[in-house]
Amino acid sequence: MKAIIFDIGSTFTKGVAFDLDKSEIIGRAKYPSTVNEDVTIGLQNVISEIERQTGLNIRDFNIKKATSSAAGGLKIIAIGLVPDLTTEAAKKASLGAGGKVIKIYSYELTSSDLDEILYLKPDIIILAGGTDGGNRYYPIINAKKLSRLPLNIPFIYAGNKDLQDEIKNIFLSNSKEIYITENVMPEYGVINIEKVQNIIREVFLRNIIHAKGLDKVQEIIDGIVMPTPLAVLKGLESFSEIYGECLLIDVGGATTDVCSVAKGEPTQNNVILKGLKEPYVKRSVEGDLGVRVSALSLFESAKKDIIKSFSHDKVKVIEEKVKFLNINTSYIPKNDEDLHLDAILAYFAVKIATERHVGHIEMVYTPMGTLLFQYGKDLRELDKVVCTGGPLIYNPYRVESLKGVIYSNDEPFILKPKNPTFYVDKEYIMFAIGVISEIYKDKSMSLVEKYINKV
Amino acid sequence: MGERTVVLGVIGADVHAVGLRILDYALRSAGFDVVNIGVLSSQEDFIKAAIESDARAILVSSLYGHAELDCRGFREKLQEAGLDNVLLYIGGNLGIGQKNWEEVEKKFKELGFNRVYPPKTMPDEVIRDLKKDLGLDK
């Protein structure tokens, strides 16, 4: 059985061909995405190249599917009530569905918020707020305001269930497309994101592909089945079926993604869990950490530490280089110096993104003695870390970059893995494994065993 | 939920959970919708839970003697959050020693609490007051 899986990205369309019976990669190609003119041009070029490599015709492939992060990815705006309750839950749901959360809002939307929403051009808006039987005011008022926007996109309501009918009517009477699903927080502190994630996927398949002009590919292949980040997450789930709890770091030019498949329960005595419970499969995305478009913002946030790696007289040069990378986003490092700088930037992207993903412990001094509050996941005992993304796959100094994942005694309350084994997605096929896992779980696991190797 | 929703919790660094469970059980049995936020809760935890759940009352429990410190500014924060109409009750060991209950009660009333209960208060009394204050005792 043969499969060919594509990733239609913002800059490149990539394709990987597999012989699933032998668990083998039999061809691969990439070509600049041509989303703005006709997405099928890039796709056809990739197909021709793979046909040439394999001697097969595209019709010979039993599975022909694609993921997409083209045209800015799946841009979601999440709206909730209290920032660290329903807003946070709505945000977590969106990220876990492979979306790109471009903005979050809490409480009542103001007119400037509404202007901003129009300006940001989201693909989907998720409205939450209130526990079941809880707050009625905010979801209703926000629904009214949103439904009057000149915005022809799907809305998803995942708030207080008592308001479902009313909210539906508000949107329908303004001729808006509205999907109603279970509350992201049915009870205080209980997070329920699976249903809304399914709806996001459904909306992605039904609307977004068309809206972004990607539906033409359906004439050539079986279709775009999910956003690329979701495919990567599913690939990681296949990995975890074999190796157990794990973490994935994906450093890119614009963002750094971190995903964990782990419970993250306390590993030490006397800690008290606080805050919202984390989903077992959790994804976080840092839009300010990357080695190209986001190189400058990364540099700004870690400048003090980054320049420590260089001699004093070099600092100006490094600063200029970072500015260069910020503009020349497809630049591939050529000499040792550039590779070294990329590795250092990647180290800080990894370090900061991991710190934001994992939980932390807060020490509180009280009349009852010292108490330890744990927020988020404790991943200190987690021992498998998968790395992917250009700088972590191809850079010869990547081992240095990966050290950013590891727990540090200098920051004992940041619950990063203490002694992980690193695995690398050396063929850059995590997304393809994810797509295949939905069709043949066992075959996706064979691919993991074969191609996701220890560093 | 709605007119019968109350938020329940132990404030501050206090970890006394038993009384909270009893109150939780009694209130549910009396038909209330209880959002129990547990021990070690801050004023903010109570307020956030009350906003999301649209609670009509917040019931604060404190047993370890630091209630006054933990509760300063609570009513003002509720007002800031737009929850002016939410009832605020407190019960437990509200002052070390508690020699003069009237004084303790007065102090907490001044802090903006609608009802203040001494130790050994039975849940029935609280439930009766709640129904009365919320206009549910018809």
TrEMBL record, chain A:
It comes from the Bacteria. Pfam families: MutL. This is Glutamate mutase.
Automatic annotation (TrEMBL), chain B:
Adenosylcob(III)alamin binds at residues 13-17, 61-63, 93-97. The keyword Membrane does not apply. Keywords: Cobalamin, Cobalt, Isomerase, Metal-binding. It catalyses: (2S,3S)-3-methyl-L-aspartate = L-glutamate. Gene3D superfamilies: Cobalamin-binding domain (3.40.50.280). The keyword Metal-binding applies. Catalyzes the carbon skeleton rearrangement of L-glutamate to L-threo-3-methylaspartate ((2S,3S)-3-methylaspartate). Heterotetramer composed of 2 epsilon subunits (GlmE) and 2 sigma subunits (GlmS). GlmE exists as a homodimer and GlmS as a monomer. Belongs to the methylaspartate mutase GlmS subunit family. This is Glutamate mutase sigma subunit. It comes from Dictyoglomus thermophilum.
